[in-house]
Design brief:
31% helix, 4-stranded mixed beta sheet, 17 strands, SAM-dependent_MTases_sf, Rossmann fold, 11 helices, alpha/beta, binds S-adenosylmethionine, EC 2.5.1.-, CmoB
Length: 333
Amino acid sequence: MVQSVAQIISAPFAPFFAHWQQSGAAAWLPRLRALTQARLQAPRHGDWARWMSLLARLPDIQAHERSFAQPCVGVTSAQPLDAPAHGELRAALMGLHPWRKGPFCLHGVMIDAEWRSDWKWARAAQALGDLDNAMVLDLGCGNGYYGYRALGAGARLVLGIDPGLRFVAQFLAVNHFLRSDRLAVLPLADEDLADQAASVDLLLSMGVLYHRRDPLRHLKILRPLLQSGGRLLLETLVLDVSGDALLEPTGRYAQMRNVYAIPSMTRLQAWLRAAGFRQIELVDLTVTTSAEQRGTDWMRFQSLADFLDPTDLGRTCEGYPAPVRAMLIAQRG
Ligand SMILES: C[S@@+](CC[C@H](N)C(=O)[O-])C[C@H]1O[C@@H](n2cnc3c(N)ncnc32)[C@H](O)[C@@H]1O
């Protein structure tokens, strides 16, 4: 049978789509499929072809044990790889540099990513508890690290979406070894899901809100996607001050060009209420340190330590308050 380009592009996601079709969110499927095919058929990233050829050459290694519930999401084989095979695998995965989210441990190769995403997940997991067969949407999911952890915590299916094609390529590389058909990272953005039917039990929006020019719009897109009784876990930069306040950086914030709004807790809770969320609870407030976000072999560009004022670590190099992240849980009202 001759396969169409659309079928070839969708092939890695087909088992996930089959599960999604059987779920309460089946109504989303035509749009998920059509947008994924459209974006991957005409990818807007000059490295996409190189990444795909790299993926096509990844070795097939029999998985012995997979671990999604451990900080280093990973897989082992019955026999450890010999040194040349280990070197080749490491070099192939390095071809997808920079790795922002991790760690992953794939057949003896540890991807020590820029972020200790396991630390953020530990904070989230403590607040969320057992995910008990939940349907999860991770919006702005990066390479899917948290999706694996959600499966490890009991989720039934996890849809990750992220417009960054490098993250999609990294997911496909990792999942070549982890072989989960319960998680996908699709090249979509929040606006792509606006007005889809209420279907998911848990929505993760972590590190996305401050990248949106209109944060309230982001929250308003999220609420209708949740089933009644569904929960949102929102993690974002905040100003650690009392009362109503909003920082709208002019120019860069900690060297990032796309940080538009950092609210106080009072302002953030008002946004959540305005978007229709109720029972809003602050579950964590953490100062980001250069132990959690740092340069490694797998992320060789500058990192947080380079973005803070060396004479005052409480300030960014632009003179703004240094990053503090709040994690909140809210219910669909
Ligand atoms: C700071 S990273 C956070 C990644 C991950 N959620 C975490 O907490 O570690 C922000 C992510 O949001 C994605 N993103 C940016 N705009 C988005 C949008 N409109 N919809 C969905 N994701 C978006 C970026 O590509 C990036 O992967």
